Amino acid sequence: TIAKIEEFVRGLRPNVPLVFAAIPVWKELSSHLAPLHRAGDWIVLATARKGEIAWQPTLERLPFRLASEFARHNVSIVVPSTEPWDAVEVAEAITSPTRIVSGFARERSMFDVKARDTRDAVTRMVTSYFGRKSVNADATAQILHRIAQEEPVELVSDVALLHAHVPFVTDTVVFLGVFREPLDIPIASGGPHILIILLDPVGQDPAKHLKALADIAGVIRLPGLVGALRSIGSFDEFIAEISRRIGG
């Protein structure tokens, strides 16, 4: 993915000298920039638009951090434009419940769940895959709980997504949880009732991870589905609701 981005940017005109560097942990951006900048440099941050898959709550604070730490430089923030959401186009792209079941699975979907807190919620969700008293379940729950507090993704109002690469899975695994009470996850619309977890193996092709994210977003953003999820009691009802909305 990085190579394709570099190829695309180098093909733009006018052609200017460029140096690309990958930063494994984006929170370390400031420390990576510190030894590189020079007097008179212009720092431009291209960031994700709020509500998009790549957006994280901490991105709201990043421009302020850059402006504070590089106060002697010009700092600009660029937010790419986005196409209006086309529900009809999404419905056409999701052609049948069979494709949806390939992501969401009966054994990893929970409805009308009562959880003490977010840690309890994610533990119960991943236990459906790893099993009770599993070391891998505990380790994964710990990772997801940290992500829930620091960098959750708000797919739409009332729906939070946690996604991570972990060494405990060998392929893409998706979990769905619908909770009676809002979870203590800091997203813009307030504590969500619906939580989706996406796990991918470490080292997996980033394109496959992004495709899974796009598929999940496409399903959840179907008109009226989120509201219906709060009253759904089973996986069969979930699939039926999706089928009704895509005309399948």
Account of the 3D structure:
- 38% of the residues lie in helices and 17% in strands.
- The strands form 2 sheets. A 5-stranded mixed β-sheet has the order 3-6-7-5-4, with helices on both faces. Strands 1-2 form a two-stranded parallel sheet.
- By secondary structure, the chain is of the alpha/beta class.
- It is elongated.
Distance linking N and C termini: 34 Å
In helices, the fraction of residues equals: 25-40%
Placed side by side, the strands forming the largest sheet appear as: 3-6-7-5-4
Strand content: 15-25%
Continuous helix count: 10
In the predicted model, the low-confidence regions spanning at least 5 consecutive residues are: 85-97
User: What order do the SSEs take from the amino end to the carboxyl end, as H and E?
Assistant: HHEHEHHEHHEEEEHHH
Class inferred from helices and paired strands: alpha/beta
Radius of gyration, in angstroms, nearest whole number: 20 Å
Q: Count all strands and give the number.
A: 7
- Described by the principal axes of the CA atoms, the overall outline is elongated
Largest sheet: 5 strands, mixed
Mean pLDDT: 82
What's the topology here?
Blueprint: H1 2-10, H2 29-33, E1 42-46, H3 62-69, E2 74-78, H4 87-93, H5 97-101, E3 109-113, H6 118-130, H7 135-150, E4 153-156, E5 159-166, E6 173-179, E7 194-201, H8 206-220, H9 225-229, H10 235-246
Parallel strand pairs: 1-2, 3-6, 5-7
Antiparallel strand pairs: 4-5, 6-7
Helix pairs in contact: 6-7
